[in-house]
Design goal:
Number of strands: 3
Largest sheet: 3 strands, mixed
CATH superfamily: YefM-like domain
Number of helices: 2
CATH class: Alpha Beta
CATH architecture: 3-Layer(aba) Sandwich
CATH topology: YefM-like fold
Helix content: 25-40%
Shape: rod-shaped
Length: 76
């Protein structure tokens, strides 16, 4: 985990945030050698509805054609 002094973080905070977002590696900001804050990437809380079951479901057979079942309602 990378550490940097508060003065360096203040001067380069945009670049530090971009690096943390890209690599996922947290950065600890220190003041006089003591850790003050930790900059970590945010985990996505919004789940994407499309494709979330990819690789978990297997479609077997024809799912578009009607099934060959005669319904009681259709007989009347």
């Amino acid at each position: 985990m990378k550490q940097m002094p508060a003065s360096a973080f203040k001067a380069h905070w945009l670049a530090v945030m971009k690096r943390v977002q890209a690599t996922g590696e947290p950065v600890i900001v220190t003041k006089r050698g003591a850790p003050v804050v930790k900059v970590v990437p945010v985990e996505s809380t919004q789940a994407d509805i499309f494709g979330f079951m990819e690789g978990r479901v297997k479609i077997v057979g024809d799912i578009e054609s009607p099934i060959p079942v005669e319904w009681e309602v259709a007989k009347q």
